């Protein structure tokens, strides 16, 4: 499907869902093992947002998702007449709609850096996580080594800041937390205390 067709389909779906969702509770559709979905759930928990989280298992995709998400992906946030299917858009929307506690810096430069860090985490680490959790043993073994090396390399950051590159808890930490949590589960080698502390601190908010 072309970009234009997806946009037109999305506009039509938004109109169709306006009345149906106007009085409904915010709903998040996600795969329980999806780190991006986990990040959005962490935002919901951190801000104490009342939301209906629907975990979608493989082969049990509800028909409503076929109507809501033009990319046939699972991760979808529905809030009244708004439908979002990009995790970063979801998190920033939630942070702006529910401003306390804030999860984004105030000034433009810091906000841009925050977005850049999140982009790099998703681009560089999330694919490794997917490979670690895959059934391909060779790819999983290689990804485990790369992920361990990357995480060990950023350990010194936690001796300089309370959180990742900042003294304030932010969306960057929320994006990084699922990676650290899954690394503790799937990488059996000894880990640095800073990484264990940080993962537990972040993920306990889920």
Explain what the structure shows.
This protein is of the alpha+beta class. It is built from eight helices and four strands. It has helices at 3-21, 35-46, 63-68, 87-97, 108-132, 137-154, 171-186, 193-203, and strands at 26-30, 51-55, 76-79, 82-84. The protein has a four-stranded mixed beta sheet, with helices on both faces. Helix 2 links the parallel strand 1 (26-30) and strand 2. It is flat. The two termini are 35 Å apart. Mean pLDDT is 82; it is low at 2-8 and 18-23.
Q: How would you summarize what this structure contains?
A:
57% of the residues lie in helices and 8% in strands. By secondary structure, it is α+β, with helices and mostly antiparallel strands.
Using only CA atoms, what is the Rg? 18 Å
Number of helices: 8
Which sequence of SSEs, written as H and E, runs from N to C? HEHEHEEHHHHH
Amount of beta strand: 5-15%
Question: What is the helix content?
Answer: 55-70%
**Structural class assignment:** alpha+beta
Biggest β-sheet: count, sense, barrel? 4 strands, mixed
Low-confidence stretches: 2-8, 18-23
Mean pLDDT: 82
Annotation, overall tally of beta strands: 4
The span between the termini is 35 Å
Characterize the overall form.
flat
Q: Which strand order do you get reading across the main beta sheet?
A: 2-1-3-4
